[in-house]
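Weekly puzzle thread! Below is a chain. First person to post its structure in token form gets bragging rights.
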Amino acid sequence: MQRLSELMGKAIVTADTGEKLGTVADILLEDDGHRVAGVVVRSGWMGKERVLPYAGVQTLGRDAVVARSSRELMGSRECPDPPTTHGSMRESYPGSE
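Winning reply:
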């Protein structure tokens, strides 16, 4: 089991090519605050952020998050109804203190 805070800053790589997509910048939770909806991926020197829906995550590894493919990434504008971010849910998410 991993804490959400342990995922922050981990590399995100693809299973199909091994390409590094970026690093974990934040975790998105469903509105009920009990399920992960996606991972915010930060990349490049300008810190561009995209969303990796949780369905596109293959593994939350000890050293990296493995995405099924880079095709799973969405721009922030493509994400329907952006879920709540981990940072704003700290008080109500069990174990996130």
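Puzzle host: Confirmed. Bonus trivia for everyone else. The beta strands are 11-14, 20-29, 36-43, 48-53, 57-60, 64-67, 74-75, 84-85.
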